């Protein structure tokens, strides 16, 4: 049985970076990957362009991970966005930020990011074994025995960095949850995050592709407001997408009602007054023309009156009280029932994972088993769109490697 100081399961961004940071003189590192090549999911990140992180002060990142930003604080501060950018640029891969703050390699090729990581693994003498799915792990003799279909390995320290359960065709099929559970770790509810919402009887299917920058919306569950947000919303053929919707999808469930405010930040009563004033001053204008003059996009203005039961080309002079009330309701708080969330086959990341209260935030070490560490999406962590999830993967991988070095009484080089 081959002996290693560190074994890392999963050659995604977290696993690759952890192996790189953990390697050093007289430290043998094994990296096991069940796919036939490393970084398969990394290749499709950012539609193949690899939005590696976000620019700006790292302190602003903590609020981008739902309620789990506090847990990530030590990891993000140990390897910041600036540190990550510097790592790649020092190895010949320049980065650039978009006007939205997303950071990409200048080449816009995810393969270039992966190539840097693979070259660095080779340079540091890491034993990368692809096509080696880990079937079982046992804690023996103050270390870990890892069994694959064809081999057994022993390691003093083990890092589970197998990713979540989204995009299972890339290998992220939840293996890490099974391995962590075998050591007694709790797994919180697994579900899709950064995923579109399917809407019951979606009335805007004909407007698919239409987007609304900075649209206010709220989510209701059993007649109680769960939260309100403001973000970019995109109509699809089956429901809603766009960064604003994707970012909040972690907190949405089937059966919830999402209310879109096409009136923008204008309150319902104020918008109603503006609408009535416009009708009063131009009673012969059609309702759809009045809506366009109030800032409602033309395609939406042409459709909303019909949804409110108002005859086509009706003018303000003939608008009934019932029609007016219904239309104002659609404009100020258009109610849409969520029938389902995009499943794990299309979700960008996974909601849920290894329970964070059982993991030491300052080292990523298990609170149950000494020498067992976790990194990346296998943890109960999911961030907003814009590079925050990849940053979390790299940062937790970095911190796990630091934790192992500290455990061995050595310091990172």
Describe the overall structure.
This protein has 413 residues and is of the alpha+beta class. The chain folds into two domains: 253 residues, 3-Layer(bba) Sandwich (FAD/NAD(P)-binding domain); 147 residues, no CATH class. The protein is built from twelve helices and 18 strands. The strands form four sheets. Strands 1, 2, 6, 7, 8, 9 and 18 form a seven-stranded mixed sheet that branches. Strands 11-14-13-12-15-16 form a six-stranded antiparallel barrel. Helix 1 packs parallel to helix 5 and helix 3 crosses helix 12. The longest helix is centred in the last third of the chain and has 20 residues. The two termini are 29 Å apart.
Write the layout of secondary structure elements.
Blueprint: E1 2-9, H1 13-22, E2 29-33, H2 40-44, E3 53-54, H3 69-78, H4 81-89, E4 95-97, E5 102-105, H5 110-123, E6 127-130, E7 134-140, E8 143-148, E9 152-160, H6 175-182, E10 191-193, E11 197-199, E12 211-221, E13 224-235, E14 239-241, H7 243-248, E15 257-260, H8 268-281, H9 287-293, H10 298-307, H11 321-333, E16 334-341, E17 349-351, E18 372-374, H12 388-407
Parallel strand pairs: 1-2, 1-9, 2-6, 9-18
Antiparallel strand pairs: 3-5, 4-5, 7-8, 8-9, 10-17, 11-14, 11-16, 12-13, 12-15, 13-14, 15-16
Helix pairs in contact: 1-5, 1-12, 3-12, 8-11, 9-10
